[in-house]
Amino acid sequence: MSELAGRCHCGAIKVLLHPARTPEELPLRACQCGFCRRHGAATTSDPESRLFIEAAPGALTRYRFGRKQVDALICAECGVYVASYLPLNGRGLATLNAWGAGLEAFQGRTPEPVTYDDETDEEKLARRRARWTPTELVEAMPSA
After folding, report:
1. What DSSP element (H or E) covers 128?
2. So where are the chain's domains?
3. How far is residue 60's CA from residue 109's CA, in Å, rounded to a whole number?
4. The whole model's pTM is what?
5. How many CB atoms lie within 10 A of CB 76?
6. Exposure of 19 by Cβ count < 10 A (0-12 exposed, 13-18 middle, 19+ buried)?
7. What number does CATH give the domain 4-139?
8. Whose CA is closest to 114, among 17, 50, 41?
9. pLDDT tens for residues 99-128?
10. CA–CA gap between residue 71 and residue 9 (Å, rounded)
């Protein structure tokens, strides 16, 4: 599978998805929480794929809401919600906002509405471990 490259609106956060399947085979979801609805998010994840996220110096804002377990990664420059990231045992898992990252391979698709309100913390963690994409997050440091 060829890699899919995207970025936030201003380009300060770049993403590179190495999909294990074609984009048409990857899920596309529309979480119904207030945060995702307000950002118009359409997310994808796949445990067999790999995701690389690189943020320019000072470009990454982390926002935790609800149960405060996951970082919503938002560009400090343009305000685009790029991904939700879960640091876990020395590695990371993420669900990528395909529309926020401008991944053209997902344009024209209708995301499946999903609701996770009734999940316990343990159920949320199990779902994320089973479905989210292994992710490397690099925050570039300002040069001296």
Report:
1. helix 121-131
2. 4-139
3. 28
4. 0.93
5. 16
6. buried
7. 2.170.150.70
8. 41
9. 999 999 999 999 999 999 899 999 999 999
10. 19
